[in-house]
Design a protein that fits this description.
The chain is mostly beta strands. Strands 3, 4, 6, 7, 9, 10, 12, 15, 16 and 17 form a ten-stranded mixed beta sheet that branches. The chain has a seven-stranded mixed beta sheet with strand order 2-1-5-8-11-13-14. The chain is built from four helices and 17 strands. The protein is globular and about 70 Å long. The model has no long low-confidence stretch (mean pLDDT 93).
């Protein structure tokens, strides 16, 4: 008997876009414009008096995998102050070969204070993620932006031996490149990611990486303050001044440690 050929099933993909614009009304920051489509949603929780406006990004798909595509754009207009975060950690699930793609674009105009504080991104076994992150700042704009990714969930005893990540950052100020960074790994080239992560020049046996960038009026003071905080926590970390920007890198055994570190940095640098 001849064999019956079965056509591959096309699975539904998560496609989403969110656009948020903040404006100033008298002394307060308020929402000017909101667009949400597909799996991307935005919520605005109640805030206590004196706190900045908060926008919470949601992915109703519950995670991302191959072929999924998310684009998120946030604009802080002149003189605004607002926090953008996420409802939960983003989960990147096993891929059949393609990348999940995320584009984040921030515009921070004159006199605005932008805070980008999403929860961590969890890379599961076999996941593949391509993430692009860009911020365009006015000359006197301020930025506090952090991203954390972790290989599996340490509390569940998970390890990640295969997968890929491309994480590209660009920050422009007044149209000129202020800082760019690109991190990439792929088990198709590097082999077992557990051995790759164990190298001293890579993750030194850790599974979680925090990248924090701060653009503030007194960058050396911010850098010194960040290093003071980092000296008091159980992480492999350091802060470096690069012109008008402060870069913080921190490694830890699990995401909870870096979450605590990030909160301490936020309290110190935003006070």
């Amino acid at each position: 008997a001849g064999r019956m050929s079965v056509a591959p099933v096309a699975l539904p993909r998560a496609i989403g876009e969110a656009r948020v614009v903040f404006k100033r009304r008298d002394e307060a920051t308020v929402l000017q414009d909101l667009y949400q489509q597909g799996c991307c949603k935005v919520r605005f929780p109640r805030i206590d008096p004196g706190e900045p406006l908060q926008a919470v990004l949601l992915n109703t798909a519950g995670g991302l995998t191959d072929g999924d595509h998310v684009r998120q754009t946030v604009t802080w207009r002149e003189g605004t102050h607002a926090v953008v975060t996420t409802q939960a950690a983003e989960r990147i699930y096993r891929s059949r070969g393609e990348m999940a793609v995320v584009h984040n674009a921030l515009e921070v105009r004159a006199g605005a204070r932008a805070i980008w504080l999403p929860q961590e991104t969890i890379l599961f076994e076999g996941s593949r993620l391509e993430r692009h992150w860009r911020a365009d700042l006015a000359p006197d704009a301020m930025l506090f932006a952090a991203e954390t990714w972790t290989l599996g969930r340490a509390a569940m005893g998970e390890t990640v031996a295969s997968g890929a990540l491309t994480d590209a950052w660009e920050i422009f100020r007044d149209g000129r490149l202020l800082w760019a960074d690109r991190l990439a790994f792929d088990s198709n080239r590097a082999g077992d990611l557990r051995a790759w992560a164990a190298r001293p020049a890579v993750l030194a046996g850790n599974t979680t990486l925090l990248t924090l960038v701060v653009v503030a009026p007194e960058p050396q003071e911010a850098c010194d303050a960040a290093n003071t905080v980092l000296g008091s926590v159980d992480t492999l970390a350091g802060a470096t001044r690069i012109g008008d920007l402060v870069l913080v890198r921190a490694l830890a055994r699990n995401a909870a440690l870096l979450r605590t570190t990030l909160l301490l940095l936020f309290d110190r640098l935003q006070s």
